[in-house]
Amino acid sequence: MGSGMQLATLFQQIINGLSLGSVYALIAVGYSLVYSILSFSNFAHGGFLVVGGYICYGMLAGFDLVLGGQHIIGLQPFPSAAASFPSTSVPVSLDFIVWGQHLFSIPSSIWIGGICALIGAGLIAILTERLAYKPIRERTSTTLYLLIASMGVSIVIENIFVIVVGGRFRALPSGTFDDIFDIFERISRFCGTIESTGGNASAHLINLGAGVTVSMFDILSLIVAVLFLGGLQLFLTRTRWGLAIRAAACDLNTAGLMGVNVARLISIVFFVAGLLAAIGGIFLSFRYTLYPQLGGTITTKAFVAAVIGGLGSLPGAVVGSLILGLAEMLTAGFISSQMRDLVVFSMLVIMLLIKPAGFFGRQISDKI
Amino acid sequence: MMKKSLLGNAAFAVVGLTLALWPLSGYEEGIVVLLCINCIAAMGVSLLTGFTGIFTLGHAAYMALGAYTAAIMTVRYGVHYLPAIVAGGIIAVLVAWLIGVPTLRLTGDYYAIASIGLGEAIRLILENWQSFTRGARGFPGIDSYTTRWTAVLFFTVLGAGMFNLIGSRLGRELKASRDDRIAASLMGFNTTASRMKALLISAFYCGISGALLGGYMNFIQPSMFDMMKSTELTAVVVFGGLGSMSGTLIGSAIITSVMEYFRDISQYRMLIYGALLVSIMVLRPEGVLGNREIWSFLPRFGRRD
């Protein structure tokens, strides 16, 4: 391998790493947000991601919403393989049928699927908090019980999907993001600076020269991550609830004494966490595949990212995720793809030994 | 004092003999073996989590080390199974010592996080070390050396040892360092050393348990010892009651039997397990027995204190 080619691999893997890291960041930030308020490690966070992924998949595959019929919400039998999707951007339409009357049908697209996935995952997150965590929080201050309950919740969510939709690997249709890619292509043609080699629906690649290509999907995930993380930052710094959340991150009880509605605040935090996780879930299920156990593996990664950056710190979670994404992709590019996870966990352990508080964490004397 | 521990050991011998001699069908024998294996691992984790206050999410890795050591020794080198099982425990202890020296400085959540990382790292090493462990395909062809006798023998000896340990000076030292580490060290206890002892003993128990599991299943695979298994070990201990060794045994027995009972509807098994975990935490977070031992619930006859 010549040095030029190695350099090309390096750039390629850096781009891939940043894209993967930005998806991890969406998940890690939500996880870290919950940690900063309730100081427990929410292992069910991966469950929210899977909920988002499956809602989006279901919307794209076509729900059949029937009210007043034999069933309230009828799931059309899922196509057995992703190959059965037509590769156009609008595979099926959503038919809303109430009391046997066909009300309206809308073409299901990534916009509708995505929005429903975000809201659905957010609501599931609130529901989880209300059913499982709230009773424990009210009874005891020991976070260990919350941790174990969250593991139980993650097992429950995972297995509900195993039972309802089956444990098979599924992929979002290859044309999922075509609507958005079209916009990109128009912009790039308008600017005229980047040569686009689109055409094949599954490979929207932009050639940067010297053998380095970047897929539109990578750009999209970066842009969306930046948009949502920026939005979160604005929400936290510019709104009253954002102020309340920042206060609660310092001290939840005192925030409550200052007149913050703590129950609602925690619900908002969980909604935001679930929403961000759902975006990550959609991107991950497009990048890799969607399966019920996806949540577990990815949460562990987000968890590692959050620890590297400093538990409970949002900028830390972003930085940690980018480091993790880069480390994973560089390992895959230069050593071996099998060593990826080993590198991830070694980084975790080394970080804990050298600087347990992470890059941005608050120093607490209890740690050492 | 002497009399009480004699009574406890006698009780354990009776339990052991009953488990070993009571006439059972082949299927029930299998459940007894599984029960013994799970209880041994749970006792180990209970000592660390319940009695020393070190929360671990990586102890399945020590089971994996024990299982692979025993399997490789018996299959490749033809070692007798009894020394191989003990060697499994010892290898787990050695690795635990290597890990414990740097990581036991961490406390609370941070040790738990580190233990996840270390546990997964050990599993991934076993998975990628193709030439020695056969990797992710698993290690087949292990003799079924874990008979009912072997399992019950190890359970009885280790169980009696554990109950004596928690009543001993070291046991009280561990509880003291769990309740208040600073106060315990002011009392003159070397809490670092005693925490290390707890980790090593718990690794030994998990190693033995893993070695027995290998002989029971005849086949081991790194994915059997993933984070899920570690979680289960800790969950069993919390379910039984943190700081109650008899609670741990009861919790382990209940969870093993519930899982066994739902074997027919295996699709719903994990769902039920997860729901059980959540409901226990919501309804009775202190576990079945809380932090008391089962004999403290007996009427206090003939006791003067």
Query: Which two chains share the most extensive interface?
Result: A-B, 47 and 39 residues
- Report the order of strands and helices of chain A: HHEEEEHHHEEEHHHHHHH
Give the proportion of residues in helices of chain A: 55-70%
Strand order of the largest sheet of chain A: 2-1-3-4
The number of strands of chain B is 0
Contiguous helical run count of chain A: 12
Question: How would you sum up this structure, described in words?
Answer:
The complex is a heterodimer of chains A (368) and B (305). Chain A is an alpha+beta fold. Chain A has one domain. Helices cover 64% and strands 8% of the residues of chain A. Chain A has helices at 3-38, 45-61, 110-139, 143-164, 178-191, 216-238, 240-250, 252-257, 262-287, 294-309, 314-334, 340-354; strands at 64-67, 73-74, 93-98, 101-107, 195-196, 205-209, 212-215. In chain A, a hairpin with an 8-residue loop joins strand 5 and strand 6 (205-209). In chain A, helix 3 runs antiparallel to helix 4 and helix 6 packs across helix 7. Chain A is globular. The relative contact order of chain A is 0.19. By secondary structure, chain B is mainly α. Chain B has one domain. In chain B, 73% of the residues lie in helices and 0% in strands. Chain B has helices at residues 2-21, 26-51, 60-77, 81-103, 109-128, 130-133, 148-167, 169-179, 181-186, 191-217, 227-240, 245-261, 266-283. Chain B is globular and about 50 Å long. The relative contact order of chain B is 0.18. The chains are: A alpha+beta (368), B mainly alpha (305).
Question: How are the elements arranged and paired?
Answer:
The complex is a heterodimer of chains A (368) and B (305).
Chain A: H1 3-38, H2 45-61, E1 64-67, E2 73-74, E3 93-98, E4 101-107, H3 110-139, H4 143-164, H5 178-191, E5 195-196, E6 205-209, E7 212-215, H6 216-238, H7 240-250, H8 252-257, H9 262-287, H10 294-309, H11 314-334, H12 340-354
Parallel strand pairs in A: 1-3
Antiparallel strand pairs in A: 1-2, 3-4, 5-6, 6-7
Chain B: H1 2-21, H2 26-51, H3 60-77, H4 81-103, H5 109-128, H6 130-133, H7 148-167, H8 169-179, H9 181-186, H10 191-217, H11 227-240, H12 245-261, H13 266-283
Helix pairs in contact in B: 1-7, 2-7, 2-10, 2-11, 2-12, 3-4, 3-5, 3-10, 4-10, 8-10, 11-12
